[in-house]
Design a protein that fits this description.
Blueprint (H helix, E strand, L loop, with lengths): L4 H8 E8 L4 E5 L5 E5 L5 E4 L2 E3 L9 E7 L2 E9 L1 H5 L5
Parallel strand pairs: 4-7
Antiparallel strand pairs: 1-2, 1-6, 2-3, 4-5, 6-7
């Protein structure tokens, strides 16, 4: 069965659980509430509305999309900030 657009967006989004910019590690939780650890390289770029940066731009609770390139992510796009989630009219 093929997924519709909403289903694909839900499964590609991850919630940041923990960030360790010094070690280059990121722990994320997926749709099935299973956590995964991601090892990021120095060239991993974090993209948000505020601009571009490194892992220090991420915060627990942020919703992200990881764009892999080989064994390490090339770009991490912040889809929604943690503080935007609590301000959402959906709640």
């Amino acid at each position: 069965m093929s997924q519709n657009l909403t289903d694909r967006l839900q499964t590609s989004r991850l919630t940041v659980v923990e960030v360790d910019p010094v070690r280059g590690h990121l722990r994320v939780r997926g749709e099935a509430d299973v956590c995964s650890d991601i090892a990021c390289g120095e060239q991993t770029l974090v993209v948000s509305d505020e601009g571009r940066g490194g892992l220090e731009a991420l915060h627990p609770g942020d919703i992200v999309k990881v764009e892999p390139a080989g064994t390490r992510p090339e770009r991490i796009v912040i889809v929604r900030r943690a503080w935007d989630e609590t301000a959402s009219p959906e709640i």
